[in-house]
Design brief:
Radius of gyration: 25 Å
CATH topology of the domain at 69-95 and 459-607 and 639-722: Rossmann fold
CATH architecture of the domain at 69-95 and 459-607 and 639-722: 3-Layer(aba) Sandwich
Mean pLDDT: 91
Shape: globular
Largest sheet: 8 strands, mixed
Low-confidence stretches: 1-50
CATH superfamily of the domain at 69-95 and 459-607 and 639-722: Alpha/Beta hydrolase fold, catalytic domain
Structural class: alpha+beta
Helix content: 10-25%
Number of helices: 16
Strand order of the largest sheet: 32-33-35-34-36-37-38-39
Amino acid sequence: MPKLSSLCLAASLAAGVAGTPAFAQASGNETKEDAMQNAGAADAQQAESQQADAYQWLEGVEDAKALEWVKAENAKTEAELTTTPEFKKLEGDIRAILDSDAKIPGVEKIGDYYYNFWKDKQHERGLWRRTTLEEYRKPNPQWETVIDLDALNKAENAKWVWHGADCFKPEYKRCLIALSPGGSDADVTREFDLTTKEWVKDGFQRKEAKGGLGWIDQDTVYVFTDFGPGSMTSSGYPRIVKEWKRGTPIESAKVVYEGKPEDMYIAAFHDNTPGYERDYVSRTIAFYNDELYLRGKDGKLTKIDVPNSVNKGVRKDWLMLELREPWAVGGKTYKAGSLLATKLDGFMAGKRDFDVLFEPTDTTSLAGYTWTKTQVVLNVLDNVKNKLFLLKHGEGGWKSEPLEVGSLEYGTVGVGAVDSDESDEVWMTVTDFLTPTTLMLVNPGVANGIEKLKSMPVFFDASKDAIEQHFATSKDGTKVPYFIIHPKDMKLDGANPTLLYGYGGFEISLTPTYSGGIGKGWLEKGGVYVLANIRGGGEYGPRWHQAALKAKRHKAYEDFAAVAQDLVARKITSPKHLGIQGGSNGGLLMGNMLTQYPELFGAVVVQVPLLDMKRYSHLLAGASWMAEYGDPDTADWNFIKTFSPYHLFDPAKTYPPTIFMTSTKDDRVHPGHARKMMAKMQAASKDVRYYENIEGGHGGAANNAQQAHMNALAYTFLWKELTK
């Protein structure tokens, strides 16, 4: 069973997030009069901000005037970057990679079948399909189509984007299918019959909103969604979860739990692990600040009494706790970053005895853990390199042993259970920047228990490149790791076109990954690619993340600047040949590099960014990230304004060539950030351009064609500017 504290985000959050939603709570000592005064002050601040912001009209996402501006800017960018044969070839090459039939079809075991969602040239929106393990082992498996999204879109004149399936076990006859209009986080849910492969007439259906449905039994679901005025949090996520019976109107669903308006996300879940069936309510207050309750058959909620910062998971009779802060309990103090295990029933009865399954060191952090039927696989990062350990519990307690699978020197290893109720087998992937991903079926601890199933095809010529890891020294003396992929015969003359990528937020780790797009669009042309593991991320666990929170945000930017300076000091590149790229929270990083360190870079790609940090908490899901950045309507603005690119921009300064890229359908990070920054820089006659995809949500693209186009725009812009 996954970590419960993260489950409530699954329906609305995806890879590349600006951050898991968060919201800072008001003080419990605040009086009604204080609240009114503070609200009035906030309103006054917002009014002042609006009055001073000449470009706030661009925040109208679907406003006709704003969209007219978007289309005009898109046309200029297209005219500048897309008319050459080189662009067309690159776009075609990337599209071919994305559409390749030879990619590894990742599968999920549902009942007796293995399901995969697949997109290619013939199926732009995708197929949900299935096969058997015996068939999957073959080089060219035969697949049975379950849902054809392109056919559905044609029939309904829609633009649905796949958001996933939740199938009721153990029968696996009915599924709750989530579909997004155009790729937004907001989606709908429909019930689907796996036996007839048809939508269930009068089945469970949820209208478009951020939220979801989850099975309790075959005739009952938990529903957390937009029930009308007052039912959503200030972050735009569900505030109320209800129990809904089949055949009854959703309006009659029974309230299970109601959170506060300033909470982030409320949800409930049923765990139907055989013999350990339980129900839970999750109250997410802020990023890494949540409460988890056991729900009894009588509806009574009992809190699992651990600090809110702890990531909580339950598997059968085990309670698993990942600590983000030191915890003194039961006469002992456990280190932040540790993984603890204890029996759930004993804990609920008051016992506080824990087994330490992992404790971090100066170089290690827990990347994750995976339960199988009888074992736990720990995935540990050691200086951003994966190491696996197999844990088994017996009469003598927990025993740990290394799990060797032939990892790469600078590679990433991923692990996921095949069927944690039925077997100890795991899916395992191994990859690095230059080595196509390999998928293996592994039975840990069993001799000859490794079966190589699939390998990603070679999408670019990597024979001339090499991978290295270096450490830059940040302003405060902290050593910051980064990976560099470069031609083996690279000359140290400072003239190599170099692309530096970063993120640095929300405890998200960046690790080596094979990318055909980067390979074809950058490395194969002779470019150097660099991945920075700056503070704010999770490469060294909670301490690495917390080192760049709120008033310490500048540490992340100093780290990234230090990596850039280290590349120049090593004569790998020079400012005019050094480009940077980042999206979402990484887009905020790019905005600060642009405004605070413009002399270090020759080109900047800013994707789906946060930029106006005065307004961010009032735009779409922005309020959900105040635990990361702070609340701009309070005294926090004193430090937030030091990393708000929209306010740091100085018309008198010289800035490197820049492109802003976003999506109209992004209902997580408001496209107004990119629009307004573009308009402000354009008015000051800076070297800037803009592209906004009409679909795509926070991921930027709704299909492979759109993704290829946007990637080609970014690489073409960078290559043009950095090779002058």
